[in-house]
């Protein structure tokens, strides 16, 4: 069962060395923490991503936040995967997501009037000041959103791999 979530108005962000940290929200959205400090789901990533306004990005965010580690482990077990194999598969998926983000940012640069490089676009999308009002319409917008989705997927798959390792390390595989 997830812990209750605070609305954005109850969240008070603080800036420390250029990184946005919301101490109140980190506690409120961390989800259920199990033995060994493992998280039952990825809802704690709410502190990592902006609250996008575009419906397609909101769907991606919600899918990430509702990912249950125990469900991912059950799926891996049903395929006969060891903990090491499952973690490796999640890391490989994260790498594929990052590659997709790079390709999408290249497309964005080639179709937009931006003077930014593809790497600069990725840094902007992955940084603390990403615009939550990113629009996914048109070729440039859909490319920027595809890059954002790729980056979110990479972060989520890295987090899922870490949680799977935590579960295995604590005898919960």
Give the tags.
mainly alpha; 6 helices; 173 residues; disordered N terminus
How does this model look, in words?
It is elongated and about 50 Å long. The chain has a domain at 50-169. Helices cover 56% and strands 3% of the residues. It has a two-stranded antiparallel ribbon with strand order 1-2. It contains six helices and two strands; from the N terminus they run E-E-H-H-H-H-H-H. By secondary structure, it is mainly α. The model is unreliable at 1-30 (pLDDT under 50).
Unreliable parts: 1-30
Helix content: 55-70%
Largest sheet: 2 strands, antiparallel
- Work out the strand percent: under 5%
> Could you spell the SSE succession in H and E letters?
EEHHHHHH
The global form is elongated
Number of strands: 2
Q: Record the strand order, biggest sheet.
A: 1-2
Average pLDDT level? 82
Query: Termini distance?
Result: 19 Å
Topology:
Blueprint: E1 14-16, E2 19-21, H1 23-28, H2 55-65, H3 69-78, H4 83-111, H5 118-126, H6 138-169
Antiparallel strand pairs: 1-2
Helix pairs in contact: 2-6, 4-5, 4-6, 5-6
Brief sketch in words of this structure:
The chain is mainly alpha-helical and 173 residues long.
